[in-house]
Amino acid sequence: GAVVSQHPSRVICKSGTSVKIECRSLDFQATTMFWYRQFPKKSLMLMATSNEGSKATYEQGVEKDKFLINHASLTLSTLTVTSAHPEDSSFYICSARTTSGVYEQYFGPGTRLTVT
Amino acid sequence: AQTVTQSQPEMSVQEAETVTLSCTYDTSENNYYLFWYKQPPSRQMILVIRQEAYKQQNATENRFSVNFQKAAKSFSLKISDSQLGDTAMYFCAFMNNDMRFGAGTRLTVKP
C-alpha cells in the first residue's frame, strides 16, 4: 500500500526558533498534500493544501507567514513553523493524494512538536 | 463549506457484540467520498472503510460495514463481533476537494 513518512516524529524547540517538518510519499507520486493539526483528544483540523509547484492554499485562520509550506516535488512537502511559540505545540499530520486517480488520501504517522 | 458531525463523543461495547457509530454531514455537492478512520494511541490514521457517494450499495470490509443514506446525509459505521483491538478513536471524514473530519468518537471495547 501507499506509504507516507514524516520526519521528525518528535521535536522539541525553543520559543522563537523555527522548525521544519518533512512529509514524503515513499512509493507513489502525490500532486496534492495536506497538512493537519491535531490538539490532544481533538479532531484533525485542515491547515493547508499544497499542490506540487504552486503556492499552498491556507484555511481561514491559519497564518501563512507562520506556517510556511513548500511542495517542491511530487514526493516531498515541508511545513516550517517559524518563530515558534508554546501555543504552536501540537501534533502535525500530513497526508498525500495519489496521481493515479484513486480518490484517497494516505496519512503520515505525525510529528509531535513541543515548543518550550 | 462541508461539515461533519459525530454526536457521540464516547461509546463502549462488550467484546463480541455489535456497535454503531453515527455520522452526519452537510454538503451541497453531489459527488464526494466518505470515510471512517481509526486512530489508535499511536495516532497513525488507519483507513477502516470508504464509500463513494455515487454508489448506492453500502460498503463492507469484513466486520465493518456502513449505512449510507445519501438523502439524509448520514453515514454510520457498524462494527460487528467487536474485538479489544478495535478500541480507538474513530473519525468520520468527508472528501471532495479536501478531507474534513468529524470530532471523533472514542470507542472502548470491554472484555
Description:
- The complex is a heterodimer of chains A (116) and B (111).
- The mean pLDDT of chain A is 93.
- Chain A has strands at residues 4-7, 10-13, 19-25, 30-38, 44-51, 57-58, 67-73, 76-81, 90-98, 105-107, 111-115.
- With 116 residues, chain A is an all-beta fold.
- In chain A, 33% of the residues are buried.
- In chain A, strand 5 and strand 6 (57-58) form a beta hairpin.
- In chain A, strands 2, 4, 5, 6, 9, 10 and 11 form a seven-stranded mixed sheet that branches. In chain A, strands 1-3-8-7 form a four-stranded antiparallel sheet, with no helix packed on it.
- By secondary structure, chain B is mainly β.
- Helix content of chain B is 0%, strand content 53%.
- Chain B contains no helices and twelve strands.
- In chain B, the strands form three sheets. In chain B, strands 2, 5, 6, 10, 11 and 12 form a six-stranded mixed sheet that branches.
- In chain B, a hairpin with a 3-residue loop joins strand 10 (88-95) and strand 11.
- The radius of gyration of chain B is 13 Å and the shape is globular.
- The termini of chain B are far apart.
- The model of chain B has no long low-confidence stretch (mean pLDDT 96).
- The A-B interface holds A 34, 38, 42-46, 49, 91, 93, 95, 103-105, 107, 109-110 and B 33, 37, 42-45, 47, 50, 52, 91, 95, 97-104.
Quick synopsis:
The complex is a heterodimer of chains A (116) and B (111). Chain A is mainly beta and 116 residues long.
